Amino acid sequence: MIQLDAKEAVMLRHYQKLFDTYSFDEYDILGFLMLIRRFIQNEYTDILEFADLIAHRLRDRGKAMTCLSSAIDNDYETYNGKKVKGYYGIHECSWKKEWNQLFTDFGMVLNERLLKEITICIFSLAHGSEYMDKNGHHGYLVLVRGKNNTLALSTTEGNTNSLFICFFLLRNIEFNQEREDFLYKNPVETERVDAKLRLKDKDGYII
Question: Which of 26, 82, 151, 158 has the fewest CB atoms within 10 Å around its CB?
């Protein structure tokens, strides 16, 4: 079990109630990541990637920065026309493992729905964040609608005809069929509608 001080324990109970009742949105996840950030500096590298991101939206380090830099330096060379050389994003299995372990360490229970909704909130928080290092590598994390009901958090340099590389993929998304967007260019936000978590931008609901 992770050792919390008295105030941290009170705050954790607050977030646990939100999780248990599925009444949270991305602003609650932002606060939760801030609360747990000091406890996840070593073994929770995937979760830490986003805990650091919400603290600093202009990033010059981290896994996404490394992936973006490698892709640029390797001129987007691929293996078998698919995987970009030197690009290693976040994988579903390691993401699930870290969150399951984190909830266990905090004495909480995680399920598939809860993890999916937390991930959607994190995608929303990460969308539009900027990456730039001292070597001149520059780009963004953006949301892209993929094939087979997937939503991809992707890196791009943000220039005309820039490539989009999937950094983290979320499956089994119920998209709003009235929207035909491929790339979501505007800021997005989560909200609860009849207890269901929705993702939207200024043009309406995405999911």
Answer: 82
The pairing of beta strand 83-84 with beta strand 196-201? unpaired
pLDDT at 186 over 90: yes
Are the CB atoms for 41 and 48 separated by under 8 Å? yes
If we measure between CA atoms, which residue out of 36, 68, 35, 76 comes closest to residue 167?
A: 68
- Residues 168, 94 contacting (CB under 8 angstroms): no
**pTM summary value:** 0.94
150 close to 171: Cβ distance less than 8 angstroms: yes
The span from the CA of 146 to the CA of 163, in Å, is 14
Return all residues near 106 (Cβ < 8 A) that are at least 6 apart. Answer: 1, 2, 12, 16, 36
DSSP string over 45-108 = HHHHHHHHHHH-SEESSSHHHHHHHHHHHTTT-EETTTEETT-----HHHHHHHHHHHHHHTT-
Cα separation, 175 vs 172, whole angstroms: 9
- Cβ pair 36, 51 in contact under 8 A: yes
- Helix H or strand E encompassing 26: helix 26-36
Considering only CA atoms, give the Rg of the chain. 17
- Give the span between the Cα atoms of 38 and 42, in whole angstroms: 10
Residue 1, pLDDT > 70, answer no
